[in-house]
């Protein structure tokens, strides 16, 4: 059975490009021992943890899945108001999901960076089992309230950081809208690979990312406060998936009071193996 420790170790090792043999050699152990830790068959001796954490450039707390207390985020202030900051209209990718993988059988959706939960609650109302997480406590509180207004809809929410969270079960659909620019560029591939791993064969990823194009001026208010993706970068991380939609759009936006444009890459991809 997989353990949180095993998942974290595997993710961190892959992020750093280390082999099991490399870790084993540094700790004077066999590669099989590391493999067993990652597969949740055994746990390391507690006295090895500081050296393992140093090697993986992390802390023993992080290795054991003990997360820091999350601070307040800019979104907490935005989500405090009664009205829904992003409105209640579902994102259009929800309709791709409905069309491609209708909830005619039990299907589990994970909404990363779910904000105030409008998309997860919409999908739950359509018949999916939806789970959403976000870093903003106010967003999670709003999402839970929204779900409570639809008691027959199966939607659950919790607070987590997508940079650290390790999915604990398999999902049919991974959904993330307007969120992935918060992944640091150098960790995007490794982190998305971990999320890809938790999708069942035949499942979908429905994702969008803000990208930069040389002919579109940056927005006046620096609202993309994470990092833009390169045009096409998202698609390249799903090269061995089946693409149902792979699109780049340019759209107008008036946030901050000034008309400007954004470019977004949209991907709906199915896991084949
Ligand atoms: C532009 S909003 C999009 C919210 C929602 N997906 C929607 O479309 O309504 C970005 C969201 O990402 C969340 N976020 C930012 N960094 C995050 C992280 N590291 N882990 C989880 N959520 C994060 C923010 O709190 C915010 O709710």
TrEMBL record:
Pfam families registered for this protein in UniProt: HTH_3, Methyltransf_25
Molecular function per GO: DNA binding; methyltransferase activity
A GO biological-process term: methylation
SUPFAM superfamilies for the chain: lambda repressor-like DNA-binding domains, S-adenosyl-L-methionine-dependent methyltransferases
Entry-linked PANTHER family: HTH-TYPE TRANSCRIPTIONAL REGULATOR XRE, TRACRIPTIONAL REGULATORY PROTEIN-RELATED-RELATED
PROSITE patterns linked to this entry: HTH_CROC1
Top-rank taxon: Bacteria
CDD domains: AdoMet_MTases, HTH_XRE
Coiled-coil region list: none
Domain HTH cro/C1-type: 9-63
SMART domains per record: HTH_XRE (SM00530)
Keywords of this entry: DNA-binding, Methyltransferase, Transferase
Stated name of the protein: Methyltransferase domain-containing protein
């Amino acid at each position: 059975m997989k353990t949180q420790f095993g998942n974290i170790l595997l993710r961190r090792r892959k992020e750093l490009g280390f082999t099991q043999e490399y870790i084993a050699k540094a700790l004077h152990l066999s590669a099989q021992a590391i493999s067993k830790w990652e597969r949740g068959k055994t746990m390391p001796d507690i006295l090895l943890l500081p050296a393992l954490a140093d090697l993986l450039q992390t802390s023993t707390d992080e290795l054991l899945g003990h997360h820091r207390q999350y601070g307040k985020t800019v979104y907490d202030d935005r989500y405090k108001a009664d009205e829904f900051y992003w409105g209640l209209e579902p994102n259009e990718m929800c309709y791709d999901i409905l069309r491609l993988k209708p909830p005619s059988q039990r299907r589990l959706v994970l909404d990363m960076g779910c904000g105030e939960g409008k998309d997860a609650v919409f999908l739950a109302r359509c018949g999916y089992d939806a789970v959403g997480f976000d870093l903003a406590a106010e967003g999670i509180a709003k999402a839970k309230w929204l779900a409570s207004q639809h008691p027959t809809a199966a939607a659950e929410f919790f607070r987590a950081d997508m940079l650290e969270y390790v999915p604990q079960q398999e999902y049919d659909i991974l959904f993330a809208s307007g969120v992935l620019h918060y992944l640091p560029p150098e960790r995007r591939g490794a982190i998305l690979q971990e999320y890809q791993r938790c999708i069942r064969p035949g499942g979908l990823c429905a994702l969008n990312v803000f990208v930069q194009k040389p002919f579109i001026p940056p927005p006046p208010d620096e609202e993309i406060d994470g990092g833009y993706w390169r045009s096409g970068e998202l698609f390249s991380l799903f090269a061995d998936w089946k693409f149902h939609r792979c699109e780049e759009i340019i759209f107008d936006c008036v946030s901050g009071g000034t008309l400007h444009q954004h470019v977004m890459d949209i991907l709906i991809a199915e896991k084949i193996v």
